[in-house]
Amino acid sequence: MINDEYLLAALRLGSGLDPIPPHVSAAAREAYSLRMSGAITASPVECVATSGVRDSSGGPRLVRFATAELAFDVEVTVGDGLIDLAGQVTPCPGEGSFIDIRTLQLIVRREVGRTGQFAATGLPPGWFSLVCHRPGCRPIVTRWLRIRS
């Protein structure tokens, strides 16, 4: 059975009589601004923890994102309410490449080392995404992943 008040509220929203709350519109604009048109998306893939990578018992966690061109292996460590990321891009994207580590609050830029490594510490918990910028190539962006402290 449909509640009359619920039905009337739904009809008001559908007819446009109840405006969208400003905070909802602002959140939608912010989310839209985070997209990267033309980028290649790296999706999360299953990865087997290697020697030295701890399980979900509070130690570091390994996350892998991949495309046909490259893979991001990221070790996530949570401590004191902040997030530390240490990662490697394989194959190494080459000289002049850099990684943007994006959160909803900030973007941290790191040069990719000769072996494809990068790291950032003291990041806020929440959503994050990585973008690999390579000279002369389309950027590769990971899907957003939520990390809780």
Number of DSSP E strands: 10
What is the CA-CA span between the terminal residues?
42 Å
How much strand? Answer: 35-45%
Count of helical stretches: 2
Question: Whole-number radius of gyration?
Answer: 20 Å
Low-confidence runs of at least 5 consecutive residues: 50-55
For the sheet with most strands, the description reads: 10 strands, mixed
Q: Tell me the CATH topology of the largest domain.
A: Immunoglobulin-like
Write down the overall mean pLDDT: 85
Question: Order of helices and strands, N to C?
Answer: HHEEEEEEEEEE
Instruction: Characterize the overall form.
Output: elongated
Into which percent range does the helicity of residues fall? 10-25%
Number of domains: 2
**Sheet/helix structural class:** alpha+beta
Indicate the CATH architecture of the largest domain: Sandwich
Under CATH at level 1, the class of the largest domain stands as: Mainly Beta
Keywords:
149 residues; alpha+beta; Immunoglobulin-like; elongated
What's this model, at a glance?
With 149 residues, this protein is an alpha+beta fold. The chain contains 2 helices and 10 strands; from the N terminus they run H-H-E-E-E-E-E-E-E-E-E-E.
